[in-house]
Write a structure and sequence with these properties.
Elements: H1 2-18, H2 21-36, E1 42-47, E2 51-57, E3 81-84, E4 91-97, E5 101-107, E6 113-114, E7 121-122, E8 129-130, E9 137-141
The structure holds calcium ion (2 copies).
One calcium ion binds near residues 46, 78, 80 and 133.
Keywords: Signal
Protein name: Peptidase inhibitor family I36
Length: about 150
């Protein structure tokens, strides 16, 4: 009996997360980031799982590599996770070029965050592009302006 219960306990541990530590940590880290985030802001992070904040913005930023706004020199082409704590109901449209150019996709308010952009694409625009380490501008838009293009 004892051996059986130890075995069952081990199986229980595996089933509750030991096999999937990354996915469990991913949602936990971004859940915590969302709880701690200032209301009204859009966040982008250098790493996956809401790690290492690049910037946080209530407005738009036309160029993540210039010297103004919430995102500045060196923030472009780096984001690997995003967080949306907007309160207006608007979505955030992200582009792979500055000045809202190139390929794009959106994160809607109800998504809360995208913990790993490495498995997403900026599917709208000229040819599409990987979503990770490409974003260089963003703006708030009506979700219907995003059509079917949303990050998950
Ligand atoms: Ca900027
Ligand atoms: Ca990065």
């Amino acid at each position: 009996m004892r051996k059986i219960s130890v075995l069952l306990a081990t199986l229980g541990l595996v089933a509750t997360g030991a096999l999937f530590p990354m996915s469990v940590q991913a949602s936990t880290a971004c859940d915590n980031a969302w709880d701690a985030a200032k209301s009204g802001y859009f966040f982008a992070y250098d790493a996956t799982n809401c790690g290492r904040t690049l910037g946080a913005d209530v407005g738009n930023d036309v160029d993540w590599n210039d010297r103004t706004g919430a995102f500045q020199q060196g923030d472009g082409d780096k984001a690997e996770s995003l967080l949306h704590k907007g309160t207006s109901g608007l979505a955030v449209q992200v582009f792979d070029h500055a000045h809202f150019g190139g390929n794009w996709s959106c994160i809607k308010k109800s998504e809360y965050y995208v913990s790993n952009l490495l498995d997403d694409r900026l599917e709208a625009g000229p040819g599409g592009a990987p979503a990770a380490n490409t974003i260089s501008s963003h703006r708030w838009v009506n979700a219907k302006d995003c059509g079917v293009y949303f990050l998950h």
